[in-house]
Amino acid sequence: MAFDEDIEVLSLQNDNSKEHVLMEKGNKISDMSPLMEMKNSVANLKIEIQEMEVRIGVLEHTLLKNQLNQGLMTIAKSGSDVTA
């Protein structure tokens, strides 16, 4: 009889342990906070990328403008040398 009672107690403990593990897994699966953190991070990265693209565009424009001005100055200098 004691053997049967021990088996029953162990069986109940095993069932309780299984339920506990399954509940923990269910809680981890239904926990949306890591997913929300990733979504927020991706959204922040998209904003940063847009800001960087604007900065790159401004720098390209400034660089091209300076190159054009230097080219015009070179042409103007060479033109004044030719007429002199």
Automatic annotation (TrEMBL):
Keyword NAD: no
One Pfam entry name: IFT57
Transmembrane segments: none
Coiled-coil region list: 35-62
InterPro entries: Intra-flagellar_transport_57
Top-rank lineage group of the source organism: Eukaryota
Intracellular or extracellular location(s): Cell projection, Cilium
UniProt keywords, alphabetically: Cell projection, Cilium, Coiled coil
GO cellular-component term (any): microtubule organizing center
An annotated GO BP: non-motile cilium assembly
Similarity remark: Belongs to the IFT57 family.
Annotated protein name in UniProt: Uncharacterized protein
Taxonomic source organism: Ceratopteris richardii (Triangle waterfern)
